[in-house]
Amino acid sequence: MRGEPPASSPALTPTLSRERERAQEAPLLQVDGVSLEYRTPERVVRATHRVSFDVHAADRFVLLGPSGCGKSTLLKAVAGFIPPVEGEIRLGGQRVTHPGPDRIVVFQEFDQLPPWKTVKQNVMFPLLASRTLGKKEAAERALHCLDKVGLARFAEVHPHQLSGGMKQRVAIARALAMQPRVLLMDEPFAALDALTRRKMQQELLALWDEVRFTLLFVTHSIEEALVVGNRVALLSPHPGRMRAEVNSHGFSLASLGGAEFQGTAQRIHDMLFEEEPEEAAA
Amino acid sequence: MSAAVPPIRPEYERTLEPFTEVPLERTLPLPARIWAQAGVRKGLILIVIAVLWELAARWQDNDLLLPTFTATARALFEGLASGELIEKVRISLAVLLQGYLTGVLLAFALTTLAVSTQIGRDLLDTLTSMFNPLPAIALLPLALLWFGLGRGSLVFVLIHSVLWPLALNTYAGFQGVPETLRMAGRNYGLKGLRYVLQILVPAALPSILSGLKIGWAFAWRTLIAAELVFGASSGKGGLGWYIFQNRNELYTDRVFAGLAMVVLIGLLVESLGFKTLERLTVRRWGQQR
Questions:
Q1: Chain A within 8 Å of B194 (Cβ-Cβ)?
Q2: pLDDT for the residue A6
Q3: How confident is the model at residue B216 (pLDDT cuts 50, 70, 90)?
């Protein structure tokens, strides 16, 4: 069973272990009263309104909500792509102002891997671009991380020769290699078929068991939220506001279909659809 | 009314033996494999064209208007053997490369400016819509006034013919780079020139390559045309001058040899230069089929 941040220290992430000691006092990532807006040619639309939540080290924090609740926009704001119009986002007490390699994003789209680089070069790319490591060390770490996601055999292959699931594995390996302070995932498995998706969830949890990274995960699937996360934040749509935070550390893929799991899923379902009963039927 | 109910059929399970009935892979027959070579197919097209040319010329039977393929080939070999053609090609290529490379550099600078600033975008927009429709040859009289008879004027019109189409293509390519890829690049902390060189340029390479090809063709056309127009008064003319001179002296076979030289260099650059570049980059990366 997956619990709260454990004591065992992983070999891969020395920076994270230090953070975990502080985890009990202060949250690693604080989203504090954040309002986000985006512009269309005619008007300015409010995507989220005064959203606040805390993510602690080694959390698997899930943002869950129907489309239009601004969860992806929120993730992009944490990544530093969109500045908040109100409130602020703090990572380790420091205000987030621009994109940076301490918050690596795994996107939903398969075209996030530059096609001109081989799988190994792709994993090395952020390490070299951010000048974190030299070429040799970067190559070693890339191979190590590819091995973790089971793609060591495909290191010299170009991304277009991979399947969708394999491309997402490369993106995850690339993110892990950077050892970011927060790993951001924007519906990373949404474009995959159901069987591959389940397998990827399982692998992600196994990776977390081993590495204990801090994860902020966006999804629109209640089931995925409960399985992947240890804490689930529910957002209401138009604009996105915090509706609830639910603990889900007791659930794993093995609890699918169990009475307690079904109960929580039903509770979340009711909270998400209470205002628009006609959409619940659709 | 009772709805139709499908019958309930028994389940079954089979254990499958290893598959040995037919070999899993077969090699294609030899003719199919030969035909699969692009070089073979294109060579065949060239041979057909040469034969048609030869037939048409013999039927026409007038060496002044249309020399035969064999006569042209002979003139070409004589020109190459005497070194005269090679010298002309060398002169033309030297000027061509100078203008082409300068044009490419300028186009890159202009598009880099255009992706990073609003005013750069407006500058590129305005300049390309003003100058792209302007034929390079129309600028030649002006260039002759400014730079005199010679290399300077040629390089100037060459830059003009390469810069605008390449800048347009490159910029269109930059615009087409997927948002996810851009965000991934910025996510790694890439900015400014590093961002352009490490993300935008490789991602837009298919468009950039086609811009380079168009620019190369435009450069050749402009160069030959410019040499035809004023090569007569320049002491050291290139291929265009060779064609012009031989036309004046009614050596039609040499005129054809000069034209064939232009065509051959075009084929060579396309098949050895650009095709190789494409094979090593965009095809290998799966950006182009």
A1: yes
A2: 46
A3: very high
Q: Is B31 on the interface with A (CB under 8 A)?
A: no
Chain center to CA of A178 = 14
Residue B178 to residue B35: CA distance in whole angstroms: 37
Structure tokens at A209: 């068991």
Strands A29-39, A86-91: pairing kind = antiparallel
Other CB atoms within 10 Å distance of the CB of residue B166? 28
Give residue-wise pLDDT tens across range A92-105.
888 889 898 889 99
The answer to whether residues B254 and B75 touch, using CB atoms and an 8 Å cutoff, is yes
pLDDT tier at A17, thresholds 50, 70, 90: low
Asked whether B198 and B185 are in contact (CB, 8 A), the reply is: yes
B229 burial class (0-12, 13-18, 19+ CB within 10 angstroms)?
middle
On whether any CB of chain B is under 8 Å from the CB of A109, the answer is yes
pLDDT digits (tens, 9 = 90+) for B60-97: 888 888 889 999 999 999 989 998 888 888 888 998 99
Per DSSP (E only), the strands in A94-198 are: 94-95, 103-106, 182-186
Q: What is the pTM of this model?
A: 0.77
| Contact by Cβ (8 Å): A75, A65 | no
Among B188, B205, B281, which would you mutate to test the A interface (most chain A Cβ atoms within 10 Å of its Cβ)? B188
What's the complex ipTM?
0.75
User: Which of B180, B188, B202 lies at the smallest CB-CB distance from A111?
Assistant: B180
